[in-house]
Design goal:
Helix content: 25-40%
Strand content: 25-35%
Distance between the termini: 43 Å
Oligomer: single chain
Structural class: alpha+beta
Radius of gyration: 22 Å
Number of strands: 5
Strand order of the largest sheet: 3-5-4
Length: 110
């Protein structure tokens, strides 16, 4: 069976079935979720400079609440605030129990 199909409206080949890697299926080049999400990246990091400490603390509380809404097991949250030129820099690391929770949290911030 050829890996190139012809379109009925064109003489150009359509590459509907491409050569796939070991973790992909030949039918649609779908990738097994385990090759993307292997639980090695469970930390989401956030960094921003705020005008004042009150704004930074407000954001920390809001992001902490969002992380708590996603977690299945307690999320480890490490935050640091330091004064910098122009305000206060807030850095936060959210470490979830699995990569899926990390991705859900990150996508929820978009």
């Amino acid at each position: 069976m050829s890996d190139v199909t012809m379109s009925s409206k064109s003489t150009q080949p359509l590459h509907s079935i491409n050569k796939c890697g070991a973790e992909e299926t030949a039918a649609c080049c779908c990738v097994d979720v385990g090759t993307i999400m292997d639980n090695t990246d469970c930390t989401a990091s956030y960094s921003r400079v705020f005008e004042n400490e009150a704004q930074a603390k407000e954001t920390l509380e809001a992001l902490t609440e969002r992380a708590r809404g996603v977690e299945s097991e307690p999320c480890e949250i490490k935050s640091r605030m330091e004064k910098v030129d122009g305000g206060v820099e807030l850095n936060i690391d959210f470490t979830f129990s699995c990569q899926a929770e990390t991705m859900i949290f990150q996508l929820g911030l978009r």
